Amino acid sequence: MSNLLSLRREWVLLAIIVAIALAVGARAPVFLSWRNGMDIANDSAILAILVMGQMLVLLTRGVDLSVASNLALTGMVCALAGRSFPEMGVVSLVALAIAVGTLLGAINGWLITRFSLPPIVVTLGTLSAYRGAIFVASNGAWISDQNIHPVIKGLPREQWLGLPALVWVAIVVVLAMAVFLRWRREGREIYALGGNLHAAAYVGIPVQRRLMLVYSLSGALAGLAGLLWVGRYSIAFTELASGYELTVIAACVIGGVSIGGGVGTVAGAALGVLFIGVVNGALPVIQVSPFWQQAIAGVVILVSVVLNAGAQGRSGRLILERREVPA
Amino acid sequence: MSTALLQLRGIHKRYGATHALRGVDLDLQRGEVLALIGENGAGKSTLVKILTGVVPPDEGEIALDGQMHRFAHAQASQAAGIVAVHQETVMFDELSVAENIFIGRHLQRGPFIDWPAMNAQAARVLEQIGARFGATALVKNLSLAERHLVEIARALSQRASVVILDEPTAALSQQEIRDFYGLVRKLRDQGVGVIFITHKFDEVFAVADRYLVLRDGASVGRGHIAEANEAELVRLMAGRAIEQIYPPIPNVPSEPGEVLMQVRNLSHPTEFADLSFNLRRGEILGFYGLVGSGRSEAMLALMGLNREASGEFEVEGRRYRPQSPGDAIAAGIAYVPEERQRQGGILSFSVQHNISLAGLSRFARGPWLSKLRESELCTRMTERLRIKAGSPDTPMSGLSGGNQQKMVIAKWLGLNPRIVILDEPTKGIDVGAKQAVYQLIAEMVSQGLAVILVSSELPEVMNLAHRVIVMRRGRQVAEFAHGSTDAEAVVAAASGIAAPVNLELVQRPAPAFRELAA
Question: Could you give the domains of chain B?
Answer without folding.
Answer: 6-240 (3.40.50.300), 244-507 (3.40.50.300)
